[in-house]
Amino acid sequence: MKTSPLDRCRQAFADVMTVPAPADISATTATMLEFVFADVWQRPGLTRRERRFVTLPCVAAADAEGPLRDHVYAALNSGDLSIVEMQEAVLHFAVYGGWPKASRFNMVVDEQWARIHDERGLPVPAAEPLLPLTTASDPEERLTAGERAFREVNCLPFAPTRDNPFHGAGILNFVFGEMWLRPGLGMKERRLITVACVAFQDAPYPILSHVYAALKSREVSFDEMDELALHFAAHYGWPKGANLAQVISEQKVRVSAEWAAESS
Amino acid sequence: MKTSPLDRCRQAFADVMTVPAPADISATTATMLEFVFADVWQRPGLTRRERRFVTLPCVAAADAEGPLRDHVYAALNSGDLSIVEMQEAVLHFAVYGGWPKASRFNMVVDEQWARIHDERGLPVPAAEPLLPLTTASDPEERLTAGERAFREVNCLPFAPTRDNPFHGAGILNFVFGEMWLRPGLGMKERRLITVACVAFQDAPYPILSHVYAALKSREVSFDEMDELALHFAAHYGWPKGANLAQVISEQKVRVSAEWAAESS
Amino acid sequence: MKTSPLDRCRQAFADVMTVPAPADISATTATMLEFVFADVWQRPGLTRRERRFVTLPCVAAADAEGPLRDHVYAALNSGDLSIVEMQEAVLHFAVYGGWPKASRFNMVVDEQWARIHDERGLPVPAAEPLLPLTTASDPEERLTAGERAFREVNCLPFAPTRDNPFHGAGILNFVFGEMWLRPGLGMKERRLITVACVAFQDAPYPILSHVYAALKSREVSFDEMDELALHFAAHYGWPKGANLAQVISEQKVRVSAEWAAESS
Fold this sequence. Notes:
GO molecular function, one term (chains A, B, C): peroxiredoxin activity
Helix content of chain A: over 70%
Oligomer: homotrimer
């Protein structure tokens, strides 16, 4: 028996969102649901779990209450993300997407985590303690570790000057001296979140540098990055998606040329 | 009898919003209301109906709940937009502004449509069925139609490669192979929405290409485009408005030169 | 001799931007320039210097290259902000607006600071050294200081749990344990930047909490806050401005009631 397009859409929606599709879908909503859930989410190239690390920053940035709540629920309820990964994703998003939007994201995570346990008749487990931190406390040591992490994460031979508040107190001391070094989230996952965030923030140099580093580090393959651009465009809109796709095509050329030079 | 500036502002507000202006307006709010409603909305160059296709993307992007609700209500309640046009505008916005914000926009449309019928003591009419779609189902046919629509909408002699997820599965298969080809919304209206969306998303190439195509197609005149920039700036802020105005002035020169070359 | 509206607009533009207005202004641009520069910037309620702390986050958030460059130049060239204040504003913006946009803002500050010195035939002075930091290094001490700063800045009797990465590693350890405690920028200035940032990010709770705290601390008066809303709306758009104005009116009632209860 043939599956109708609408049935295929309903199955895809339920697979991603872990709840049934709405019963009463308007024509235009169906068009969009079909494209987003039955076409984009079902594609190979990125797993469902990996697509969540692109989707979550998009819905947190858009701060549309309903989709944010639904995607946080689905990511936790499916078991695709652990609560530790989800909370670490919120902190990572805070840095790249801004604290106020992250504040709401964090509240939604707490709510949906409670909801899932409530639905299952289970108590919410106690949180992991913050201390001890795995990073150094001494300012000089933190900056040195931050400079090393900056070079490694960005695949660059240099780190920025310390003597600028944004770079010293912010980037080296906190973003790379602590945040990127925290356990609980893999490097590939951090890169998916970061690329989604720089793509919606769309300041030119950060997009370029994080797309470059994700490819150069081989933590995101060329095909995965193309897939990320499509997934991002479907969730945050074509104009910023087109910009990201353009940067990706340029950085592939750059990285390929560097690899060719390194192997010769 | 002379109309006071505040009365003029109240009349303009009521004309656009289809409800009376708030009774208790602070001095700073009055300054803004006067500019937005009594100055900008009353200008010739774009009709009130046309201004709605610029305003709706701005309020949906800003996702300020109150203004979104009020402008959706006003657009439908005034009769300036039919429900079919409004729902099609949501889908078009979803593509250019991102699915999460569109999801909220869509919910607000349903709510306000119900509210209007409730106020009038009428039942909400049944929705238009999605199927049958007017676009082809065969993937090859869809891509071919998408390539043709891409060239026509963008006023370009070429279409992007199919063999890239963003361009093939996204742009050709869905955005131009289906969305732009749907009936229910005119081309001029789609262009007004698109330019507003690329202006707030502000990735450089999409602004340039959609401003160019709107002018080149003669579906938006030079004067209408200037007016669009002002209306956008009033609703989405002066900095992005200034950027749009800059692109418009450059694209006018380009389009004029092309027309001169074509007619010589 | 009477000053024409366009002359008034040109004078206002030159006063704010420290350079002459463009010679060739279209009618729609003139309408906007007149409102923004001749009306809004000239109002009492906030000084020109104070308005810069609202404008800079707006143009950095919008990442419209031209306006960002022009406003950074004007703020430094007028002497309204010192370079230390400007750089501290970038770091503060990074936290509330997101690191990628701040990265561009920081680059523009370096460029314009060099341009100003170049125009004056002066060498760019050496940067202030980052170390020693004025905040504690020990994690426990930092968290304790962060909890205290959180309560004081937010005018709240409690601080969030440490055992959540967003709150512990982010908010307490860095945002309130270090960033808000840095010298180089006054509390009023930090509040102006923060309110502008939460207004464009538009997650509901942060807008509410930072508007409340700015008023409750008496570091921003009721009238100044109204003026901030107008200035913000002119630069970041009416819909988010309307949302901010709504929150302000509610928080004034709340703060007034609290003050009445405290004094009785």
